[in-house]
Amino acid sequence: MIDYNKKLTLHRELYPMSDIDISCESDRGRILSAPALRRLQKKTQVFPLELNAAVRSRLTHSLEVSQTARFIAKTIIKKSEGKYGLEELKDVFISTAEMTSLLHDIGNPPFGHFAEVAINSWMQNSGLKILDDLIEVGDKNRAFKEMLVRDICNYDGNAQAIRVVARLQRLNLSYCQIASIIKYTRGAYEPKPAKSEELYYIKKKPGFYYSEKELIENIYEALDTKTGHRFPITYIMEAADDISYLNADLEDAVDKGILDFEQIYNLIKKECEKLDETYLLDLVDVFYKKAKEKEDEPYQFNLFWTLTRAKLTHALVEHVSTVYLNNHEDIFTGRFDSALLEFDKQSKYTKAITVLQNISVKYIYNNKDVQTLELKGHKILTTLFDTYSVLLKLDFREFEDLVDDKRISCFMSQRLIRRLSSKHIVAYKSATAKLSNDDMEKYKLEEWYYRTRLIIDYITGMTDDFAYNEFKVLSALEA
Question: Is 438 a catalytic residue?
Answer without folding.
Answer: no
